[in-house]
Design brief:
Length: 431
């Protein structure tokens, strides 16, 4: 069992990850960054990659670490291994995973003494509801409190005190998010944006994405022949009685207007999200650890970090893949590429908004805080199959174009990113 619908961390979840947000916002914590590790299939590779993750974390000289995984079963070998290798180096660890009554650990070790169970379903089993068993802010509060307590106990037992550093805090990276809240998402003859209103030329966006798919060249050129059709629809708040094919992902609508991901300025829409679904021409549903397909209200838990809020508008992008492509990596990537192409005009309009029209501004900073408890964060994602992949480093926050698969780019070896890079959408979920 790999990533299943209820434990899947969508692209939107990574963009709004409650663990990273909790650590970054605490002036009493030194948060150096996020280590992204993809889970593997082969046991020896699992152990090798997990050892490299632990080494990368240990190199940050942390006082403790949080390790969070969005999969279970076989993937718990990777999870347990990272905790083991960190524990052997004397680093206090708190793990976060779905367990319930279905996902008991297939392996354990003495260092797995502090686990925050992400199960929130009454049954304690996988029920195919997207976002049901993922981390929420309360889970982050629990995990950080437990870890800080473990750090204090360790220091008391060893007689070690955190250094009372005279070095000043310093800012390493600064990111401004300009928020443009929409109260209406509507179909129109021309894609345009003004305060409170985003109008979308659905047919034009659909045709542009289809043309992109047919004439694809350069990066992802092999994906051009995978797509049969694309359907776009706007779902209003409360419109949840519609049937959806297997949910592949949920995206933010965001565009980089200054700097690179993690720095500069990002323009971001609040009040509207993108829902990506797919099937093939035979009606086959892309499946990893179960498919989140059915009536939308039954297969997605609204209001979680990785899902739209109940009062959000949804741009529903449904991709019909050619026969057999729903089980291929190219097919799944083609669906994500099509979704990125769909958003091109909307991003252009968002990028052109006057900064004074923003309804809110958020400043995210990466601060070095000498003398404060240093806590590292490990996020374990998928890197095993067609619907078990993760890509990183897209052109736009939360996007797909320009990104690189962890399976192809790093062979699942861990990657370190700064807190602001992570919270600016540098991770894209393909699982």
């Amino acid at each position: 069992m790999g990533t299943s619908p209820s434990t899947k961390e969508t692209t939107l979840h990574h963009f709004r990850d409650p663990l990273a947000a909790r650590l970054a916002a605490d002036a009493g914590i030194d948060f150096p960054g996020v280590v992204i590790q993809a889970t593997s299939d082969d046991y020896l590779h699992k152990r090798f990659v997990s050892k490299r993750t632990a080494a990368l974390v240990a190199g940050q000289r942390p006082d403790g670490a949080l390790v969070c995984i969005d999969a279970w079963g076989n993937a718990h070998i990777d999870f347990a291994s990272v905790i083991e290798f960190l524990g052997e180096q004397g680093i206090p660890v708190v793990g976060l995973s779905f367990v319930g009554i279905q996902a008991a650990f297939v392996v354990t070790n003495p260092y797995m003494d502090s686990i925050v169970d992400l199960n929130k379903s009454l049954s304690g089993v996988e029920e195919g509801v997207l976002g049901d068993n993922t981390a929420v802010p309360l889970d982050a509060e629990k995990a950080v409190a437990i870890l800080l307590n473990k750090i204090r106990k360790k220091n008391a037992a060893t007689g070690r005190a955190l250094p009372d550093s005279a070095l000043p805090e310093r800012m390493l990276h600064s990111l401004q998010q300009r928020i443009f809240r929409v109260s209406e998402l509507a179909a129109a003859g021309v894609t345009s944006m003004q305060p409170g209103l985003l109008q979308l030329n659905l047919e034009g966006m659909r045709q542009s994405a289809m043309d992109e798919a047919r004439a694809r060249h350069g990066q992802f050129a092999q994906l051009g022949g995978c797509i049969e059709n694309i359907t776009l629809k706007i779902l209003r708040p409360g419109e949840d009685s519609v049937f959806v094919n297997s949910i592949l992902d949920v995206w933010p609508i965001a565009v980089k207007v200054e700097g690179a991901i993690g720095d500069g300025v990002t323009n971001l829409v609040e009040g509207a999200r993108v829902l990506l679904t797919a099937s093939d021409t035979e009606g086959f549903q892309p499946i990893n650890g179960g498919a989140a397909s059915g009536l939308l209200r039954d297969v997605m838990r609204f209001g979680r970090p990785g899902t739209p809020a109940p009062d959000d508008f949804i741009l529903h992008v449904d991709v019909t893949l050619k026969k057999g492509e729903a089980v291929t990596r190219d097919g799944i990537m083609a669906a994500h590429l099509a979704c990125d192409a769909v958003l091109r005009d909307a991003r252009a309009c968002l990028a052109g908004m006057n900064r004074y029209q923003a309804t809110e501004r958020r400043r995210l900073v990466d601060m070095a805080r000498p003398g404060k408890p240093r806590i590292a964060l490990v996020k374990m994602t998928s890197g095993v199959s067609a619907m078990g992949d993760t890509s990183m480093f897209p052109e736009h926050p939360g996007g797909f174009e320009g990104s690189r698969s962890v399976m192809d780019y790093t062979h699942n070896l861990p990657v370190f990113v700064s807190p602001t890079e992570y919270m600016d959408g540098i991770v894209h979920s393909l699982s």
